Amino acid sequence: MRPRTAPIATVLLLSGLALAACGTRGETGAPAAEVSPAPARVSACTAGTTAVRFLAAAVHATARRPAVAKVEVTNTSGAPCALAGATRLTARDDQGKAAPVETDNSAADTRAVDLRPRATAVADVGYTDLNFEGTASAREVCPVQASRVEIALPGDVARTVEVTGADGAPAVFSVCGGRVSFGAFGASRA
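and the corresponding structure tokens:
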């Protein structure tokens, strides 16, 4: 009886060719696909990894257009972080004479915004800073006059932030009427 070596040799030869083809170029000449590890999950931006600024509006509101303040969140850590979800803003009158103004940006697009180290995200805050029903001398007197605001990033604790002007000088967040809109965060245009 003669041993059957041809079929076994053929299987071994084909197996060897298949293994040798792994990691080489395919029929199109392009490199074969490589499996990469899944990307690392980006941590949430927190009070410990960011700096937050609140910039009061540079221009007063009109009867048709709101004043627009800015909330800036800058990643101060050495790793990327993400803003995902609603950020809350609370302004309390410095004299305690009016109820606080509270709002968040949940009505805006709160999809994740990834911030690489030293990058800044900006959101607009629209509000009325003039009393259109009062006398001319009382137009700039609003129930809430806040020199500080509280800002809580998604899933984080609130922190108190000084209100500044665009030049960095102390300013006041004056809110006449309770309607304050808080927009979505986007990349800084500066």
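(Above: one complete record from the training split.) The longest strand covers residues 67-75.
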